[in-house]
Amino acid sequence: MQQMNIVAELPAPPQTSRRWNAVWRTASRGWPVPFLLLILWGWTWVQATTFTPAHCEADLDGYVTLARRLASLGPIGVVDADPFRHQNHVWVENARGEVLPKYAPGYPLLMAAFYLVGGDTAMFLVSPVFGGLALIGAFLLFRRWSNDAVALVAAAIFAANPIYLFYSGYLLAHAPEVCFTVWGMYFLWCWLDAPDRMPQTPPTSDSGSGTRIGQVRTRFHCLRVWIATANREHSLDGLFAGLLLGYAVTIRHTAATLALCIAVAMVAKIITGVRERRLPLKPLAALGCAYAIFPLLLMAYNWRFFGSPFETGYGLTGEQFSFSRAHLVENLPPLISGLNSGMMPAIFSVGLVGILATGTTVVRWVNCLWFFPAMIVYGSYYWGGAGMSYYRFLFPSLPLFTGAAFALIWTLKCSGFARALAVAVLAGLALMLQLDEFRQRVGIDLLAPLRAQSHNMDTRRP
């Protein structure tokens, strides 16, 4: 007797309910967008209010000059016999007598692109633009560590950081470095979480020619799912993560420490593949090869202008190898103090616990290698001391600590109301501790109305 195909005889659900369910799922996923746009609007308003296309540092002359040379496709290094034209440590002279800035070319290349569009003033928009893009990437990264609401709160605290607001409107390279770092780490997390093998074919009870047709259709569907996940969400995520984190090295050389995060992620994938008797070669190759592109180009740049692939412009000034354990012992206390009280009050201590205590073993390793190697490198450098001019170099770890702090609060074993209250308390405390810094760095006094009202009340007293 011919077996009935029960699945084929079931009535199909009405198309209307399917359509409304899809609309509801899309709307429920997109509810954070208006709030994220509100955060970006506030951040943009501060940047527009304080935008000043000018600078007063000799360091920035090197960035601007190198950007103009790159935009004009002229010589990057210029032979100049005038010893008084370049009087600062920013400029170096190589063995061929060519004078050029000592900095890596990644940030001036971004400035050159803006210069071609809008001239000198447009170069001052590089930091604000990439600072805003970093906020979007940070929100997406925070969503992978918590839920949408907590991610929005963390993104708002990140956007309201007064020192980050200040340097996002300044011509130094910190905002683009944070942008490429946070987006690269976001895609690295996507690469770690995405599936990389073809889903199993569900069993079927059909027989005969119908069974073969059904199996072909099922396998074709599984192949489409595998292509959509393993290729699009996995290899492309690895490609983007590698390109972004690799380009960060061309902005600031110390971003090469993030290669340790990539190495841990790749080792974790290999171990998982060995346990499951498979090896995802394509995703591994996409991540590794994409990351190597820009560092190799930077090595070629160093070889051409500074004489060796591993010699940077800082080597010609004697700064490249100015690291020591004595400097680390001396600089580490003011560095930690500056991060805790200056750049991330209330966030640093909670975020440090979150980095060490939340997530899987691989997540904790990646988070630790995001911060601690960079801290050791800058702590052992000869140029240190107290103040924002020193601990600002650890700006790429600001989104890490912000997201980890709120992720730790959200993973507490208590009721949802208690966790929401803890998130609100941490956010309020972080904002209150930075109000004075906000007034000093940004030039906007948020408590001015309250001070004016208090002054009026004092004048009315007998």
Number of separate strands: 3
Please, how many helices? Answer: 21
User: In whole angstroms, how far apart are the ends?
Assistant: 105 Å
Fraction of residues in helix: over 70%
Q: What fraction of the residues are assigned to beta strands by DSSP?
A: under 5%
Overall geometry: globular
Unreliable runs: 1-27, 196-210, 226-233, 449-460
Mean pLDDT: 81
* Strand arrangement, major sheet: 1-3-2
What structural category characterises the helix and strand content?
mainly alpha
Order of helical and strand elements: HHHHEEEHHHHHHHHHHHHHHHHH
Largest sheet: 3 strands, antiparallel
What is the radius of gyration computed over CA atoms, rounded to a whole number of angstroms?
26 Å
Structure description:
The protein has 462 residues and is an all-alpha fold. The protein is 70% helix and 2% strand. It has a three-stranded antiparallel beta sheet with strand order 1-3-2. α4 (58-71) crosses α5 (106-123), α9 (174-193) packs antiparallel against α10 (208-251) and α10 packs parallel to α12 (281-306). The model is unreliable at 1-27, 196-210, 226-233 and 449-460 (pLDDT under 50).
